[in-house]
Amino acid sequence: MRYQNGIVAVATVLLGALMLTGTLFTGHFPQATRAEAVGFDALAHDLFAAAPANEAGKDKKGGL
After folding, report:
1. Record's superkingdom (predicted)?
2. CA distance 15 to 21
3. Residues contacting residue 63 through CB under 8 Å, at least 6 positions apart
4. CA spacing 20 to 30 A to 56: which of 19, 39, 45, 62?
5. Residue 45 and residue 48: Cα distance in Å, rounded?
6. In the chain, what percentage of residues exceed pLDDT 70?
């Protein structure tokens, strides 16, 4: 039981250090994050632009 507690404690400290390191270096990749967001936005615009004209306002209430 004593060895098990020691192993869990060491694993917890290592995992905490790994998470802290990941948090500190997150700001180094803004270009990749921006490219992913722009790519998704372009895909969404392509999908919505391809919708048939008669379904464009189908979910809106009111009108005819």
Report:
1. Bacteria
2. 10
3. 57
4. 39
5. 5
6. 69
